[in-house]
Amino acid sequence: PPRKAHLDNILFQNLSEIKNTRFKGKEFKLYHRYVNSEIAFSQMDMAMVQAAFFASFTAFPDHFGAQHASNEELQSFVHVWRVIGYYLGLEDQYNLARLDEIDRTRSLLIDLGNEFVIPAFLNLDSISLHMLRIFSLGFNIDYHLAMYRHAYAHGYELKLLWSHFSIKQKL
Q: Which helix (H) or strand (E) holds 168?
């Protein structure tokens, strides 16, 4: 639809602006080493899959509907994802769901987001956006809103995108 295409352009414009101002000159060496790796399927890939399902909720509970969850409840949630990581084939050293304490897990996940998620946002291209659009369609997710919420949780507000959201998206 034309509205989504318009928002896609706004999203690209907003990300480009952030990339050229807040991250000008930043290299994101870990991110580039990961995406340029010749290893076809690694423990890092599985850790990123695991993170996609639990990291945002765990690292930013206030932004993703768990503002009233206690640390003990979040630790239980992390334990479930530690087990899922095991079944995904993650070796313990690569399992992002740490059992020692929730604050260390949260810190690890925020660092992971800053080193891998933020540069992935900033390097979004039309193919990545198409994949995001198709994935979101299957789950009935507004991918523009999801991008905004994740960037905002990491401390980067996509103000231009927000200004073009409908009332429904802002609620």
A: helix 167-170
